[in-house]
Amino acid sequence: MTLVRNKQVILRNYVTTFPKDSDLYVTSTTASVKFKLPAHTIITTSKEPAVIVKNLYLSCDPYQRLFMEEIPGVDESTYSQRVYYTPGSPIYGYGVAEVLDSHHPDFKAGDLVWGTTNWEQYSLITTPKSLNKIQHTDTDVPLSYYAGILGATGLTAYVGFYEFCSPKKGENVFVSAAAGAVGQLVGQIAKLMGCYVVGSAGTKQKIDLLKSKFGFDDAFNYKEESDLDVALKRYFPEGIDIYFDNVGGKMLDAVFLNMSVHGRIAGCGMISQYNLDQPEGVTNLMHLVYKRIRFHGFTVRDHYHLHPKFLDFILPYIQSLI
Ligand SMILES: NC(=O)c1ccc[n+]([C@@H]2O[C@H](COP(=O)([O-])OP(=O)(O)OC[C@H]3O[C@@H](n4cnc5c(N)ncnc54)[C@H](OP(=O)(O)O)[C@@H]3O)[C@@H](O)[C@H]2O)c1
Protein backbone atom coordinates (compact mmCIF):
# COMPACT_ATOMS: atom_id res chain seq x y z
CA MET A 1 0.00 0.00 0.00
CA THR A 2 1.39 3.43 -0.97
CA LEU A 3 1.19 6.54 1.21
CA VAL A 4 0.10 9.57 -0.87
CA ARG A 5 -1.73 12.84 -0.40
CA ASN A 6 -5.18 12.68 -1.92
CA LYS A 7 -6.37 16.28 -2.21
CA GLN A 8 -10.19 16.41 -2.30
CA VAL A 9 -12.85 19.10 -2.84
CA ILE A 10 -15.61 18.47 -0.32
CA LEU A 11 -19.16 19.82 -0.10
CA ARG A 12 -19.66 21.26 3.39
CA ASN A 13 -23.45 21.27 3.31
CA TYR A 14 -26.38 21.54 0.93
CA VAL A 15 -26.67 24.93 -0.74
CA THR A 16 -29.61 27.26 -1.20
CA THR A 17 -29.49 30.27 -3.59
CA PHE A 18 -26.08 31.43 -4.84
CA PRO A 19 -23.18 29.19 -3.76
CA LYS A 20 -20.34 30.67 -1.69
CA ASP A 21 -16.66 29.69 -1.52
CA SER A 22 -17.28 28.43 1.99
CA ASP A 23 -19.79 25.83 0.75
CA LEU A 24 -16.79 23.81 -0.41
CA TYR A 25 -13.47 23.08 1.23
CA VAL A 26 -10.26 21.34 0.24
CA THR A 27 -8.67 18.59 2.29
CA SER A 28 -5.24 17.30 1.68
CA THR A 29 -4.74 14.31 3.89
CA THR A 30 -1.94 11.84 3.70
CA ALA A 31 -3.68 8.56 3.41
CA SER A 32 -2.75 5.10 2.43
CA VAL A 33 -4.18 4.62 -1.01
CA LYS A 34 -4.45 1.21 -2.58
CA PHE A 35 -3.43 1.64 -6.19
CA LYS A 36 -4.16 -2.04 -6.74
CA LEU A 37 -7.57 -3.52 -6.33
CA PRO A 38 -7.75 -6.67 -4.19
CA ALA A 39 -7.24 -9.87 -6.14
CA HIS A 40 -10.92 -10.78 -6.08
CA THR A 41 -13.27 -8.76 -8.26
CA ILE A 42 -14.98 -5.96 -6.35
CA ILE A 43 -18.70 -6.06 -6.93
CA THR A 44 -19.91 -2.61 -5.98
CA THR A 45 -23.44 -1.48 -5.19
CA SER A 46 -23.86 -0.80 -8.91
CA LYS A 47 -22.98 -4.47 -9.55
CA GLU A 48 -20.03 -3.35 -11.68
CA PRO A 49 -16.38 -4.22 -11.05
CA ALA A 50 -14.58 -1.09 -9.78
CA VAL A 51 -11.75 0.91 -11.34
CA ILE A 52 -9.05 3.03 -9.67
CA VAL A 53 -8.03 6.20 -11.52
CA LYS A 54 -5.62 9.11 -11.22
CA ASN A 55 -7.54 12.26 -12.17
CA LEU A 56 -5.76 14.49 -14.69
CA TYR A 57 -8.30 17.19 -15.67
CA LEU A 58 -11.63 18.23 -14.16
CA SER A 59 -14.37 20.31 -15.74
CA CYS A 60 -16.41 22.83 -13.70
CA ASP A 61 -19.99 22.89 -15.08
CA PRO A 62 -23.36 24.52 -14.26
CA TYR A 63 -25.18 21.24 -13.43
CA GLN A 64 -22.87 20.86 -10.43
CA ARG A 65 -24.83 23.62 -8.72
CA LEU A 66 -27.99 21.52 -9.13
CA PHE A 67 -26.36 18.58 -7.37
CA MET A 68 -25.59 20.77 -4.34
CA GLU A 69 -29.17 20.58 -3.17
CA GLU A 70 -31.88 17.94 -3.22
CA ILE A 71 -34.57 18.54 -5.84
CA PRO A 72 -38.05 17.12 -5.13
CA GLY A 73 -39.00 14.39 -7.59
CA VAL A 74 -35.49 13.81 -8.97
CA ASP A 75 -33.40 10.86 -7.83
CA GLU A 76 -31.14 8.15 -9.22
CA SER A 77 -34.08 6.31 -10.76
CA THR A 78 -35.16 9.36 -12.79
CA TYR A 79 -31.63 10.47 -13.67
CA SER A 80 -30.19 6.98 -14.35
CA GLN A 81 -27.12 7.68 -12.21
CA ARG A 82 -26.26 9.08 -8.80
CA VAL A 83 -27.39 12.67 -8.58
CA TYR A 84 -26.78 14.65 -5.41
CA TYR A 85 -23.48 15.29 -3.71
CA THR A 86 -23.09 14.03 -0.17
CA PRO A 87 -22.03 16.66 2.38
CA GLY A 88 -18.64 15.65 3.80
CA SER A 89 -17.67 13.79 0.61
CA PRO A 90 -15.89 14.91 -2.56
CA ILE A 91 -18.09 16.39 -5.27
CA TYR A 92 -17.97 14.84 -8.71
CA GLY A 93 -18.11 15.95 -12.33
CA TYR A 94 -16.68 15.33 -15.76
CA GLY A 95 -12.97 14.81 -16.09
CA VAL A 96 -10.10 13.01 -17.76
CA ALA A 97 -8.24 10.31 -15.86
CA GLU A 98 -5.70 7.52 -16.18
CA VAL A 99 -6.67 4.03 -15.06
CA LEU A 100 -4.31 2.70 -12.38
CA ASP A 101 -6.00 -0.65 -11.85
CA SER A 102 -9.21 -2.29 -13.00
CA HIS A 103 -11.21 -5.42 -12.67
CA HIS A 104 -13.65 -4.16 -15.26
CA PRO A 105 -13.22 -5.97 -18.59
CA ASP A 106 -13.47 -2.71 -20.57
CA PHE A 107 -10.52 -1.01 -18.81
CA LYS A 108 -6.92 -1.83 -17.99
CA ALA A 109 -4.06 -0.02 -16.22
CA GLY A 110 -2.70 2.77 -18.40
CA ASP A 111 -5.97 3.44 -20.25
CA LEU A 112 -7.01 7.08 -20.54
CA VAL A 113 -10.68 7.77 -19.92
CA TRP A 114 -13.16 10.66 -19.83
CA GLY A 115 -16.38 10.68 -17.85
CA THR A 116 -17.66 11.14 -14.33
CA THR A 117 -15.02 11.15 -11.64
CA ASN A 118 -14.58 12.72 -8.21
CA TRP A 119 -12.93 16.03 -7.47
CA GLU A 120 -9.84 14.48 -5.90
CA GLN A 121 -6.46 13.29 -7.09
CA TYR A 122 -7.20 9.56 -6.95
CA SER A 123 -10.64 7.96 -7.18
CA LEU A 124 -12.18 4.56 -6.73
CA ILE A 125 -14.84 4.57 -9.44
CA THR A 126 -17.65 2.25 -8.49
CA THR A 127 -19.76 2.99 -11.59
CA PRO A 128 -17.31 2.55 -14.49
CA LYS A 129 -20.16 2.71 -16.99
CA SER A 130 -19.79 6.48 -16.50
CA LEU A 131 -16.27 6.26 -17.98
CA ASN A 132 -15.44 6.26 -21.69
CA LYS A 133 -12.13 5.06 -23.08
CA ILE A 134 -10.13 7.66 -25.01
CA GLN A 135 -9.09 6.04 -28.26
CA HIS A 136 -7.43 8.93 -30.03
CA THR A 137 -4.14 9.06 -28.17
CA ASP A 138 -2.22 8.99 -31.44
CA THR A 139 -3.46 12.43 -32.51
CA ASP A 140 -2.12 15.89 -31.69
CA VAL A 141 -5.30 16.86 -29.88
CA PRO A 142 -4.54 17.81 -26.24
CA LEU A 143 -5.90 15.34 -23.71
CA SER A 144 -7.58 18.16 -21.79
CA TYR A 145 -10.02 18.60 -24.71
CA TYR A 146 -11.78 15.45 -23.47
CA ALA A 147 -12.81 17.46 -20.41
CA GLY A 148 -14.54 19.92 -22.77
CA ILE A 149 -15.14 20.01 -26.49
CA LEU A 150 -14.33 16.32 -27.09
CA GLY A 151 -16.14 15.17 -23.95
CA ALA A 152 -19.55 15.87 -22.44
CA THR A 153 -19.69 19.54 -23.49
CA GLY A 154 -19.18 18.84 -27.17
CA LEU A 155 -21.39 15.77 -27.13
CA THR A 156 -24.18 17.81 -25.49
CA ALA A 157 -24.10 20.38 -28.29
CA TYR A 158 -23.98 17.67 -30.97
CA VAL A 159 -26.69 15.43 -29.51
CA GLY A 160 -28.97 18.30 -28.54
CA PHE A 161 -28.82 19.86 -31.97
CA TYR A 162 -28.80 16.85 -34.28
CA GLU A 163 -30.90 14.38 -32.28
CA PHE A 164 -33.57 16.71 -30.93
CA CYS A 165 -33.77 19.73 -33.23
CA SER A 166 -34.04 17.92 -36.61
CA PRO A 167 -32.24 20.84 -38.31
CA LYS A 168 -32.62 21.70 -41.96
CA LYS A 169 -30.51 24.01 -44.09
CA GLY A 170 -31.71 27.60 -43.98
CA GLU A 171 -33.70 27.28 -40.75
CA ASN A 172 -33.72 30.01 -38.10
CA VAL A 173 -31.85 28.96 -34.96
CA PHE A 174 -31.72 30.77 -31.63
CA VAL A 175 -29.19 29.80 -28.94
CA SER A 176 -29.20 31.23 -25.39
CA ALA A 177 -26.06 31.35 -23.19
CA ALA A 178 -24.53 31.33 -26.66
CA ALA A 179 -21.02 32.28 -25.56
CA GLY A 180 -20.94 29.44 -23.01
CA ALA A 181 -19.16 26.17 -23.65
CA VAL A 182 -22.21 24.39 -25.09
CA GLY A 183 -23.84 27.39 -26.79
CA GLN A 184 -20.83 28.48 -28.82
CA LEU A 185 -20.55 24.95 -30.25
CA VAL A 186 -24.25 24.70 -31.05
CA GLY A 187 -24.03 27.97 -32.96
CA GLN A 188 -21.01 26.84 -34.96
CA ILE A 189 -22.56 23.43 -35.74
CA ALA A 190 -25.76 25.17 -36.86
CA LYS A 191 -23.74 27.44 -39.13
CA LEU A 192 -22.03 24.38 -40.67
CA MET A 193 -25.55 23.09 -41.35
CA GLY A 194 -26.35 26.29 -43.29
CA CYS A 195 -28.76 27.76 -40.73
CA TYR A 196 -29.33 31.41 -39.79
CA VAL A 197 -28.06 31.62 -36.20
CA VAL A 198 -28.56 34.27 -33.52
CA GLY A 199 -27.25 34.00 -29.96
CA SER A 200 -27.88 35.81 -26.70
CA ALA A 201 -25.23 36.48 -24.08
CA GLY A 202 -24.63 38.79 -21.15
CA THR A 203 -21.75 41.12 -22.08
CA LYS A 204 -20.65 43.22 -25.04
CA GLN A 205 -17.39 41.30 -25.22
CA LYS A 206 -19.30 38.01 -25.61
CA ILE A 207 -21.58 39.54 -28.28
CA ASP A 208 -18.52 40.72 -30.26
CA LEU A 209 -16.95 37.27 -29.92
CA LEU A 210 -20.07 35.49 -31.16
CA LYS A 211 -20.20 37.64 -34.27
CA SER A 212 -16.51 38.05 -35.04
CA LYS A 213 -15.05 34.68 -34.02
CA PHE A 214 -17.79 32.06 -33.76
CA GLY A 215 -19.57 33.04 -36.98
CA PHE A 216 -23.04 33.75 -35.56
CA ASP A 217 -25.13 35.81 -37.98
CA ASP A 218 -26.16 38.07 -35.11
CA ALA A 219 -26.20 38.27 -31.33
CA PHE A 220 -27.71 40.44 -28.61
CA ASN A 221 -27.11 41.21 -24.95
CA TYR A 222 -30.21 39.97 -23.10
CA LYS A 223 -29.31 42.16 -20.12
CA GLU A 224 -29.80 45.30 -22.24
CA GLU A 225 -33.24 44.29 -23.55
CA SER A 226 -36.22 45.58 -21.58
CA ASP A 227 -38.61 43.31 -23.53
CA LEU A 228 -37.24 39.94 -24.70
CA ASP A 229 -40.29 39.35 -26.92
CA VAL A 230 -39.55 42.58 -28.83
CA ALA A 231 -35.86 41.66 -29.07
CA LEU A 232 -36.62 38.22 -30.52
CA LYS A 233 -39.07 39.71 -33.05
CA ARG A 234 -36.27 42.04 -34.17
CA TYR A 235 -33.93 39.13 -34.96
CA PHE A 236 -36.55 36.61 -36.08
CA PRO A 237 -39.32 38.47 -37.92
CA GLU A 238 -40.29 35.17 -39.57
CA GLY A 239 -40.12 33.14 -36.36
CA ILE A 240 -37.68 30.73 -34.71
CA ASP A 241 -37.53 27.20 -36.13
CA ILE A 242 -35.11 25.85 -33.54
CA TYR A 243 -34.41 27.07 -30.02
CA PHE A 244 -31.50 25.55 -28.10
CA ASP A 245 -32.45 26.41 -24.53
CA ASN A 246 -29.61 26.77 -22.05
CA VAL A 247 -31.27 29.26 -19.71
CA GLY A 248 -35.02 28.64 -19.23
CA GLY A 249 -36.97 31.32 -17.32
CA LYS A 250 -37.99 34.61 -18.92
CA MET A 251 -36.09 33.89 -22.13
CA LEU A 252 -37.89 30.60 -22.66
CA ASP A 253 -41.21 32.30 -22.00
CA ALA A 254 -40.48 34.95 -24.65
CA VAL A 255 -39.25 32.32 -27.12
CA PHE A 256 -42.61 30.49 -27.01
CA LEU A 257 -44.22 33.67 -28.40
CA ASN A 258 -41.77 33.67 -31.30
CA MET A 259 -41.58 30.02 -32.31
CA SER A 260 -42.67 28.97 -35.80
CA VAL A 261 -45.30 26.31 -36.39
CA HIS A 262 -43.69 22.86 -35.96
CA GLY A 263 -40.66 24.44 -34.29
CA ARG A 264 -38.30 22.38 -32.12
CA ILE A 265 -36.84 23.23 -28.74
CA ALA A 266 -33.93 21.32 -27.22
CA GLY A 267 -34.26 21.56 -23.43
CA CYS A 268 -30.56 21.44 -22.58
CA GLY A 269 -30.46 23.42 -19.33
CA MET A 270 -32.06 26.28 -17.41
CA ILE A 271 -29.12 28.05 -15.83
CA SER A 272 -31.16 31.18 -15.03
CA GLN A 273 -33.07 29.09 -12.47
CA TYR A 274 -30.28 27.22 -10.71
CA ASN A 275 -29.63 29.75 -7.95
CA LEU A 276 -33.22 30.83 -7.36
CA ASP A 277 -35.04 29.99 -4.16
CA GLN A 278 -38.29 29.60 -6.14
CA PRO A 279 -38.21 28.82 -9.89
CA GLU A 280 -39.83 31.44 -12.13
CA GLY A 281 -43.11 30.55 -13.76
CA VAL A 282 -43.42 30.09 -17.54
CA THR A 283 -46.70 31.53 -18.79
CA ASN A 284 -46.75 30.96 -22.55
CA LEU A 285 -46.83 27.16 -22.59
CA MET A 286 -50.04 27.09 -24.63
CA HIS A 287 -47.89 27.98 -27.66
CA LEU A 288 -46.60 24.40 -27.54
CA VAL A 289 -50.12 23.45 -28.62
CA TYR A 290 -50.98 26.35 -30.91
CA LYS A 291 -47.79 25.86 -32.92
CA ARG A 292 -47.37 22.09 -32.46
CA ILE A 293 -43.88 22.63 -31.04
CA ARG A 294 -41.70 19.69 -30.06
CA PHE A 295 -39.91 20.43 -26.76
CA HIS A 296 -37.43 17.70 -25.88
CA GLY A 297 -35.47 17.74 -22.63
CA PHE A 298 -32.37 15.57 -22.62
CA THR A 299 -29.26 14.64 -20.69
CA VAL A 300 -26.04 13.86 -22.46
CA ARG A 301 -25.56 10.86 -20.13
CA ASP A 302 -28.14 8.93 -22.16
CA HIS A 303 -26.17 9.41 -25.37
CA TYR A 304 -22.60 8.28 -24.73
CA HIS A 305 -23.08 5.67 -27.46
CA LEU A 306 -23.04 8.54 -29.98
CA HIS A 307 -19.59 9.70 -28.85
CA PRO A 308 -17.66 7.82 -31.60
CA LYS A 309 -19.95 9.34 -34.25
CA PHE A 310 -19.47 12.76 -32.67
CA LEU A 311 -15.66 12.37 -32.74
CA ASP A 312 -15.73 11.40 -36.42
CA PHE A 313 -17.65 14.63 -37.01
CA ILE A 314 -15.68 17.06 -34.83
CA LEU A 315 -12.06 15.80 -34.86
CA PRO A 316 -11.31 16.79 -38.47
CA TYR A 317 -12.40 20.38 -37.69
CA ILE A 318 -10.24 20.51 -34.58
CA GLN A 319 -7.24 18.91 -36.25
CA SER A 320 -7.47 21.40 -39.10
CA LEU A 321 -6.95 24.18 -36.54
CA ILE A 322 -4.04 22.64 -34.61
N1 LIG B 1 -28.57 18.43 -20.78
C1 LIG B 1 -27.29 18.15 -20.61
O1 LIG B 1 -26.88 16.99 -20.67
C2 LIG B 1 -26.32 19.28 -20.38
C3 LIG B 1 -24.93 19.07 -20.48
C4 LIG B 1 -24.09 20.18 -20.31
C5 LIG B 1 -24.64 21.43 -20.01
N2 LIG B 1 -25.98 21.56 -19.88
C6 LIG B 1 -26.61 22.85 -19.62
O2 LIG B 1 -26.26 23.71 -20.69
C7 LIG B 1 -26.26 25.06 -20.23
C8 LIG B 1 -24.93 25.71 -20.62
O3 LIG B 1 -23.85 24.98 -20.04
P1 LIG B 1 -22.34 25.40 -20.37
O4 LIG B 1 -21.48 24.25 -20.00
O5 LIG B 1 -22.27 25.97 -21.73
O6 LIG B 1 -22.13 26.56 -19.32
P2 LIG B 1 -20.98 27.69 -19.20
O7 LIG B 1 -19.95 27.54 -20.25
O8 LIG B 1 -20.57 27.68 -17.78
O9 LIG B 1 -21.78 29.01 -19.52
C9 LIG B 1 -22.84 29.36 -18.73
C10 LIG B 1 -23.28 30.77 -19.08
O10 LIG B 1 -24.66 30.91 -18.78
C11 LIG B 1 -24.95 32.27 -18.64
N3 LIG B 1 -25.81 32.53 -17.48
C12 LIG B 1 -25.51 32.42 -16.18
N4 LIG B 1 -26.55 32.80 -15.41
C13 LIG B 1 -27.53 33.16 -16.27
C14 LIG B 1 -28.83 33.69 -16.09
N5 LIG B 1 -29.34 33.89 -14.87
N6 LIG B 1 -29.56 33.95 -17.19
C15 LIG B 1 -29.06 33.73 -18.42
N7 LIG B 1 -27.81 33.26 -18.65
C16 LIG B 1 -27.06 32.98 -17.58
C17 LIG B 1 -23.63 33.00 -18.43
O11 LIG B 1 -23.35 33.71 -19.63
P3 LIG B 1 -23.90 35.19 -19.92
O12 LIG B 1 -22.80 36.13 -19.54
O13 LIG B 1 -24.14 35.16 -21.36
O14 LIG B 1 -25.13 35.39 -19.09
C18 LIG B 1 -22.64 31.86 -18.25
O15 LIG B 1 -21.35 32.18 -18.69
C19 LIG B 1 -26.51 25.00 -18.74
O16 LIG B 1 -27.87 25.23 -18.50
C20 LIG B 1 -26.14 23.56 -18.37
O17 LIG B 1 -26.81 23.13 -17.21
C21 LIG B 1 -26.83 20.50 -20.06
TrEMBL record:
Primary enzyme class: oxidoreductase
Record key words, sorted: Oxidoreductase
Assigned EC number: 1.-.-.-
Pfam family membership, one: ADH_zinc_N
Limits of the Alcohol dehydrogenase-like C-terminal domain: 181-313
Domain Oxidoreductase N-terminal: 32-133
GO molecular function, a single term: 2-alkenal reductase [NAD(P)H] activity
Protein name as it appears in the record: Putative oxidoreductase
